[in-house]
């Protein structure tokens, strides 16, 4: 069940975007995200994570549906069945059979329009996209990362083939990703027992696709700012390539238009000013994770050959 706080954060994100779209907070968007983030009250206790039971019969059906002959003619009931298992801790079942089958059906264009609409609604359902996101680390991160993985496949193939998503759909997805970016705390990347959980990298990849879509540039700037904010404010180590995928996003975004380039320079300048204020007096472990995360990002940007001179000069003269 979606908590009232999640609804409130989504509403704050939506209201802020409406004002940003009309020109408000152009110079202070980064700080506005800070304000929204600071108002979030994370819960101190975990709730049980409900996922379908992996009985022997269910495993058998999952593997049966993963066979090529069955992938080619997917039924809506089979899709709904598989979706119940996107959060199971069994790495092989989740990655090799459940997620691979769903993603393959998207990539090979086996799903019907009605099936894709159901899948889109399933992905964007707050109970899935934000599953247990306000609680301490828990296995529901598998649900969140799985729906992000499926969303990325859908975004890629929609541009190439389906043409199902409208500009309104893209805006809805983008604003939900902004909300997600402000709320997510679990960026562990890889868990030896549960496999890959690349929530941040998946957010970045989805952002890249939305920035290529025919949507208003205010929405693109809004989303990129939130994704950059999430990286720079995360107080856990980001050591599984997140710096590289974000650097590539910053590069492609800044090269699109001088307006985007100017905005990236402004964001990095604002972050650097805050960083300098905190650096001399902060002894919190989380802060030092932020320091080394940001250094990895800066190093990743500097090795990019096409990095705009305005960004490289800022880094070399002001940040490094």
From TrEMBL:
The opening ranks of the lineage are:
Bacteria, Bacillati, Bacillota, Bacilli, Lactobacillales
Query: What protein name is recorded for this chain?
Result: DUF2785 domain-containing protein
Instruction: Please give the superkingdom of this protein's source.
Output: Bacteria
Q: Which Pfam families match?
A: DUF2785
InterPro entries recorded: DUF2785
